[in-house]
């Protein structure tokens, strides 16, 4: 799916330092609105495209941050910078194509302009995206095997230095110069059974590199400095010391051990770039094996191991959260990561329940991979395919390399889900099964039958422990078991085979509505509801918070519903929407194959879109009078229209209120709203009103409008489905007139009654004029209903002095009409 957003890239901006808000997550940054270039700027075109990379940061409260950055080519990067620039997509939203779903960290390249100023450099202009060559993609895949070189850099500044010494780092990372049994080097070597090794770079000529560790002296003060500034200073000094313009010429991976005391605080553990070469650690975290393997894991393309939508919570492998422990915990990776790494391809089994009768076999732990008593059919990584997600099943045996597994599911069968394929993606732990337990994948392959993962036995005798697992589609016993939730299908169960068939029937099928949501980095915050405005706001379909578990994933829901007026409201429980500082979320609603609601990401608490119309033919009629007009009009006359008011509140919603008044009816208030309870929130109201002339009035109690010093509020009014007014910057009030060009004529009268005693012409002039009203309406009907204007016939019998005659029709207190 293409997500539209605008982007600006900026350098040297501190990562979020927010505290944990609710649940297990990090408080998000406020949306950035401006970028001060700090004086004159110089524009420079990129000589070579930069490479987009995803930066993953973990904090000691078990939360994380994700951010796209762009790494400049060495020819565009000066010697004082690391070359990594942050991206703030919220700054220039809706100008450029920036589709996160199509970006691949380390492979997608972008070309734009570099703007340099006193306050730093950033990238602007319309970017051009391209993919790296196929040969480069092959090199990315090669990161999971072979021997890879590592250079560790520590720093000494005037006010601080990296706590671990060169000898400490050589021992704790590579196991050099002492007794260390579990570290980055030994961990990857043992977990991969020798297929992937990380070794220190060889000693370089005329440089102070010892056992893969180098110390740089920097002039920058560490205290209260942004960690990115210290990072850049360390890289610049290392390039100078080693006589290179690009540290990638020295080693495959660079590990930076930042001195303590940066303004980023002590809460950050480390960060690294996916499918890249750099990882950065907060001081002594450089020596902790779980942090080392986790961050280097990102470098080789591994995503986080999550559980129930919470980052890091799957602790059955090193891609969960890290521990401040030396040489432990002793564990490797979960089954989803092993599948991606491809280390056990000769012990992988793929099952497709939709095309196979079923599968039963034995699972063994990866720690038993080289045992002599295993056979060819024993499986380490079992993958279930054919659904929107792949499911990876493995046996979590606690022994040897996995003896320190922290998940608390010893000797159980674990099930993780992730998007299909072996590229970068987070995994979700969805089940921990003991003997006799099972897990169902509901509506497998978008069908009506669930796929079942069942553990029938676990044999812990002998050198190799084995779990017997079966995979199958659950058999139906009645038609109700085959209900796929689609009212347009005929659901049938074949009792003899236990299989379902769902046959589409268009005869009684209402149009299909499809809701597609692409989540941001915090999917559990997203919820939405669809209601029928013509049926007492009845809820038709909804998704609650915590329903979406995977970040940056696409989810779909479909339902068949009849035509009506519908309201779709999508909400973010944290209040910052699903775009853009924390992922590029979006949503699309299609009805009857037409897009009726769409957004490339909203940045407030909620957003509402309304479409369709109620069946007004039963409510709006034009009944001609049977005494005035004998021939009705060919179609009902339109007598009403919808008025829609949308308000996006600023930072002080309690100051804002609005009303809509009917100018033609003594300024009668037909709708109103406010003060509002939530800031940065979209409020929408709609009402059906008679055709008339209206005035919309919005007021700000403080007198400073809705934009822009204290938020980015705005208002918009539509009449008969057309926008008739909008605004944001005003003082105490703003207004807009709309509706009919002239006020409709009032027409609530009836024909006059014939007088009781009609007057005959007088032969003698009367002292006063005599008036005679007709005793019946006009005998010729109008061709079509009028707007209820009534026609009168007035006869005046004059005397001999006709020039003094005059007449008038008046209405008395009983609404009787009198001619005199």
**Beta-strand fraction estimate:** 35-45%
Helix content: under 10%
Terminal CA distance reads 77 Å
Q: Tell me the Rg in angstroms.
A: 37 Å
In terms of per-residue confidence, which ranges show pLDDT below 50 for 5 or more consecutive residues?
1-39, 88-101, 616-636, 747-756, 761-791, 799-805
Strand count, sense and barrel status of the largest sheet are: 6 strands, antiparallel, barrel
SS-based class: mainly beta
Question: Count the strands?
Answer: 48
Mean pLDDT: 79
Side-by-side strand order of the widest sheet: 1-5-4-3-6-7
Annotation field: number of helices: 6
Question: Summed up, what is this model?
Answer:
By secondary structure, this protein is mainly beta.
What are the salient characteristics of this protein?
mainly beta; disordered N terminus; 6-stranded mixed β-sheet; 6-stranded antiparallel β-barrel; 820 residues; flat
Describe this structure in words.
By secondary structure, the protein is mostly beta strands. A 6-stranded antiparallel barrel has the order 1-5-4-3-6-7. The chain starts with 7 loop residues before the first strand and ends with a strand.
